[in-house]
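JOB MANIFEST
job_type = single_chain_structure
chain_count = 1
residues = 202
[input]
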Amino acid sequence: MTERVPAAVAAVSSIVILVYACATAPNPTPTQQPAAGQQMPGGPPGDPRVPLTDSARRVRDSLNAARRDSASATMLRSIAGRENQPAESVFKNIKILKGVPAGRLVNIMNMGFGRSLGVSCGFCHVPGKWDLDDKEEKNTARLMFAMVQTINRDYMAKVPNDRGAPPVVNCFTCHRGNAHPIQPEGAPPGSRPPGAPPGSGD
């Protein structure tokens, strides 16, 4: 009987504390909901273009880096002895980066494309079936790579630079670790609204 009394007192005490805490807790601050037809700043919920917090970005980046590093290490082991051969002689369906050594191609995919966009290999590729063109992101990456080459060859090479090699752009220039470049808040001076005729924002 004496053992039941402390247990009963503890149970009653816990209930009293719980009731008191609930009764004295401040009411939650309601979050502002957008009016019908409006979106919250940054885009709709789940929008991949909504900026991440620094801590969320670090977690995402470290997970994606681990996935990329693992896939790259596996790929490099599978091509051991052929890593210096042209990529198109080692891998199927190479449309860009022809002539690049196969080992370097793997590192470009990992450190260049993957890190610059903050994604893992499966963002553009069907894992294990790397040669397939089933994902639109892979075709988009090819177009973006051609764009970067054109910008560097036709424009950046003409920028005066007294420090040596001309400046270059790459995936990170715009993506900054995001799969889709983040648009800055607010329009820059002189820009025009979408769909407005030229000169309307000047």
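[summary]
Helices lie at 4-24, 54-78, 87-90, 102-117, 136-154, 171-175.
The chain has six helices and no strands.
exit_status = 0
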